[in-house]
Every structure is written in C-alpha cells, then in structure tokens.
Amino acid sequence: MGERKASKDGDRKVGRRALLIGGTVAAAGSAVLARDELARLWWRAPGVEKPRKEGEVDYAGARWVAASDANWRRADRPDDYGIDMVVIHVTQGSFDSAVKAFQDPGHKAAAHYIVRQDGHVTQMIRELDVAYHAGNRDYNERSVGIEHEGFVDRPQDLTDKMYEASARLTARICARYDIPVDREHIIGHVEVPGTDHTDPGRHWDWEKYMRLVRRARTTPA
Length: 221
Prior knowledge:
Blueprint: H1 16-40, E1 62-64, E2 72-73, E3 85-88, H2 95-102, E4 113-115, E5 121-123, E6 130-131, H3 137-142, E7 143-148, H4 160-177, E8 186-188, H5 206-217
Parallel strand pairs: 1-5, 3-7, 3-8, 4-7
Antiparallel strand pairs: 2-6, 4-5
C-alpha cells in the first residue's frame, strides 16, 4: 500500500481517560485469555476430574479396551479443543499387535479407535481426550484417529466389512461434531503436516470410502 500522511493530531499525548479505558480493555482481554487457558488445563488441577464411567464408549458399536494413559492426554473436547477432523490410519500389523502397542506406555502413540478386518470396532481412548496419533500436536487436538488392521502394501487387507464399519463410525463422528463429510476434513495420516507416515497408502479406496461415509451420514443411527 502507498504511504499515508500522519493525521494532524497524530503526535498528541494520550489522555488519562484513554489510558484507563485502554488498561481496562487490556485487563479484560487478559482475563479472557487466562480463563481460556484455565479451561484447557482443568485436568491438571489437583482433585479435578470430569465425571466418566469406566468402560464407557462414544460409539455404540464399539468395545472398550483402554490404551495406556501415557499414549494420550486428558481433555474436555470439544469444549477446550474443537473437533473438526477424522484421521485415517492403517496399523501396519495385526489387530492384536496394535492393541498391544497402544497399551504399551513406551509406545507413546495410540488412536481413539481400531477397526478390525471383520468390521469389529474397538475404542481405546475417549473422543473427549487427545490421542497421540497424528504426529502433529495441533492435528491431535482437533481430530479423532481411526486405525485399520492391515498393511498398506496389501490391498486384500482392506476388506468390505472394514470399509463399511469404519464409514459408519466416521459418519457418526462427523454428525456428533458437525464435521463436513469431505476430503478436507476426513484425511489420511500421510496428509498430516510434518508426518513421515504413508498410511493409509495407495490401496486405500478414498472414492469408495467417502461414498460409504456419505451414505451412512444420511442414514438414521
């Protein structure tokens, strides 16, 4: 933009009233920031715990198996972090090996869900909590991670039952948080900035999957 001339009173001193008003606004802004920060850190306060039922799941078709608490962090989503994304993974191993890894505190990673090749869904972390699944803090905080049993270089591992069960799960997540059913909000792990992962791989049929998610999204639960 071009240079603009200074106003005639551009160098005038700020009056006491202006200082007071400015100070009040700044204090109010600081209070809002402090409140927001406290809301994000509520789980760190001694004795503060959001009411939870042991073994409770967010998806009615899922079975609960708890991940190690070293592989996720307690939160109050979507109140402290808005959820606007689903991240699709492939386990690069069997269902049992994925469960074992997510229960290992030394693994330092886990997803909210695992979908088995036969369509069985296991939930290991509550959706309200932040799972360490994407390799990117911002994406972890704003997404739900879904693992799928198999290997990226074996298309036979990506069964119809797996696609259908996963699509129903993703559709319910999108409905719950008003997430658009499109490829900007339902992404592969490989699409997360900064990641070195390639899953779900070139054999993952995105056209088929998105069609199934859209169909499930319009079907009553």
